[in-house]
Model the fold of this input.
Amino acid sequence: MSSFRTLDDLPPEQRVLARLDLNSPVEDGVVQDNRRFSRHAETVADLAGAGHRVALMAHQGRPGRDTFVSLEQHADILAEHAGVDVDFVADTFGEEALAAVRDLDAGEVLLLENTRMTDDELPEKEPEEHASSEFVETLAPEFDAYVNDAYSAAHRKHASLVGFPLKLPSYAGRVMATEYEANTAIAEREFDADVTMVVGGTKATDVIGVMEALDDKVDRFLLGGVAGELFLRAAGYPVGEDVETDLFDEQWAANEETIRSVLDERREQVTLASDLAYEDGNGDRAEVAVDEIAEKEHAFLDIGSETVAAYEPAIRDSEAVFVKGALGVFEDERFSHGTVGVLEAIAGTDCFSVVGGGDTSRAIEMYGLSEDDFSHVSIAGGAYIRALTGEPLPAVELLIRSAEADADT
Done:
């Protein structure tokens, strides 16, 4: 399989332009620290420690949203994690940015302003178009090499992700390399025993596509969340419809045919919840067996205890477990049992395990689990879905193209 170059292949004393993904929650104008800073800090520290002159690009939010803010706060948070000073310039590729880039000394790090504050960044275009944009044409000549560490944005065809690899020798950062290896394992690796996938979350359309794509790679799907309810609906239970929510009916209409075909053709692979949890009139957690539900009268917020107990041995008997999506509204401790119970079961085994999606990985931190108990905890959402379904990731393809092009010269 063709591959990309990594930081270990980077020649010494380079002027490096590196793309990170520091997109973070913003509360009342304050950027929140999160796992992305600590992950990307390794790449930043390695580049600075090797004596490169380093300029960083990243995005935050989208125009028109409350999260669309400057990266000034990001520089301070990143510096704390990386253990190196990170200067900031409130410019992306104008004269102020270029002057700051040219002023860099060996081992110094500079964060450029939010890439999405430039008009050239956001339109989804082919790499060749982005490579000829003013943004890329202006910035690329200032550097010897480009490093892409933004795996979680690798499914996007944005200028900072796909334009620069056509102009500069390109390399994968530490996050890019580890995420790519772990997230493609389900397609690339051969496992001798059972492979299990835990499927949940609120975006049923995504995970149903994953189930369809991976039916020959996965021996068992354990369902919860919105997708789990929709599959129960297809199996004839009076759930998976909107009551106090707007999550189900639209996704059912879009996916009913696929759900029914998956259930008909691969019923023995799909394990459905046997009970569900809801909030009773006293505000407490209550559970009901799906066989006893005559009509959906309230929102179901988690899988039930019997389901968790049934899922645990299936996980223990697996050689590999992949997680996509939470099994309940784990942010509310009353409805965290499903998500946390399954994660604890995985943590207690020595199987190869990948937990994907920002929300699910947040549960690990929230409930005091250790990332070390999992083979990999992904910070990617859309890119993780693409990797699982075998769809190409444009930014990864460009890294591979760059390596191949330089090998041919």
